[in-house]
Amino acid sequence: MQLGHIYCLLLMVYIVYLGHKRVEGARTTKSHIELLSNVFTSRDDAKKSMLYSYKHGFSGFSAMLNSTQAAKLANVEGVITVFRSKILRLHTTRSWDFMGLTLDSSKGKPLQLRYGDDVVVGVLDSGIWPESESFREEPCMGPIPSYWKGKCVKGEKFDPSTACNQKLVGARYYLKGFEQEFGPIIPGAGSEYRSARDFLGHGTHTASTAVGSVVHTSGFFGLGQGVARGGAPRARLAVYKTCWSKDYNGMCTEADILAAFDDALQDGVCIISASFGGTPPLPPFFASSADIGSFHAMQLGVSVVFSGGNDGPDPSLVGNVAPWSICVAASTIDRNFPTRITLDSNISITGESFITKQIKGRLADATTYFVGGVCAPENWNKRAATGRVILCFSTVGPVTSDIAEEAVQKANGSALIFVEPLTRQIADVDIIPTVRVDIIQGTKIRNYLAQSPKLPRVDIEPSETIIGKTPAPTVAYFSSRGPSSISPDILKPDITAPGVNILAAWPPKTPPSLSKTDKRSVCWNFQSGTSMSCPHVSGVTALLKSAHPDWSPAAIRSALMTTGKINDDPFFSIFFC
Description:
The structure is a single chain. By secondary structure, the chain is an alpha/beta fold. 24% of the residues lie in helices and 25% in strands. The chain has 15 helices and 30 strands. The chain has a seven-stranded parallel β-sheet with strand order 7-10-6-13-15-16-27, with helices on both faces. Strands 19-18-24-20-21-22-23 form a seven-stranded mixed β-sheet, sandwiched between helices. Helix 9 packs parallel to helix 14 (530-547) and helix 10 (254-267) packs parallel to helix 11 (289-299). 52% of the residues are buried.
């Protein structure tokens, strides 16, 4: 059998998009099956192949088809597009004060506590950890808005009677597309929850950033302590779990995403927040689930906020660029976590980290334990690095901090000093203690090590939390840049918001570093990415919608863009790394 013929027989998930059908009969599952029957020998076969029928906010369906069937459907009158359901990925406290939304009540009730009760924000993500304090009911919260039609769906370790309340008013999950791509999710297997419960932590983090209730005691092992809350603490929350763990990587299929959009618009959400996307080349607008869903949301007056992606700093890699939605870049806030490194009591260097306990050891160069000095697991020379703090350069290899951490952990090192350019020096939750220093500092450490007659003693002190000493915001190096690769004349991203080292709610059963070897349990965690900046804008959008319920999505986007700051704290132009 020829290869081309085999390919034609392969079944894959396709989405058949029919647009906005005004005739009610054309939006029924029955009509979708009739259309699908054109490429099957029987109606029963067509029905079995269908995954979802989209019939509320727009018309279409997803089904298991081969390429020949897909091509035939694409030529049927009334079909707008037929496209393969692609795999999209998730784009991985102080921030609201930094943005000017404080809880100071000296001049009356704070804006964050004045508005939001009448707004439901839908979050399409990896689910929710409902027991988090961020999702408890705010004091004196009124009844759920009468327009709300959503519901909480029962599933593995998710009981609506205890999980949902006047704050968390909806919880659904979608896995047909995921299971067709990656196989079934087995309840109790420990690799996911077959329900709206969050396994990855990403959804809990973004939801609490957007609309989390006020929590007075938050922090990560003593770092970033303060009052945590979302942008609209009094707003209602509905979660739509579209993204699932595959080896701790968040995977979201377009078939599931469109099903969530369809339900969310029927349920009555006012805002949709979605922190996922793909990397260019970008498909045409109406061959993308995010663009189709957000287009029909806009028609119904629902604002949709997307993350712009984490593929920076090269130009034209921004995603989610549809002109009818809001695309958000990521930037810093005026908080950092300096960590002091002392060598032989002679030299003191300051880096960035989330170190929570003092570390003492001997400094060692990467060349001692890794072939060519490349800090990668496959380059380990089998020498044990017990008691050693290893110095690794990102430019040797090159390697990322994640790879270097894995390598040093494999060699049984005590800690890692990771040297990388200043613009990339962002503290992270690591699998082993890691301090990031810039190239100048790293070179100084390396030269001291080379001139020492024996391995220097190294003392790493616990990190501190410092506020207001760093010019901010600065657009993060990882934040995807424009112009849009599909519509360069439409400027994207629209706006930037805090997306670096954002502290928010976290499932206590999910390791903060997302590493299986990490046995720590936390209720709050730091994350960086446009995934974190997106819900900041979603929260502000909820406040605007509550204060101005008659404003259209275009009016809200305009208000956000024309009132955003164009200068940092010292009043210089915002810097793009």
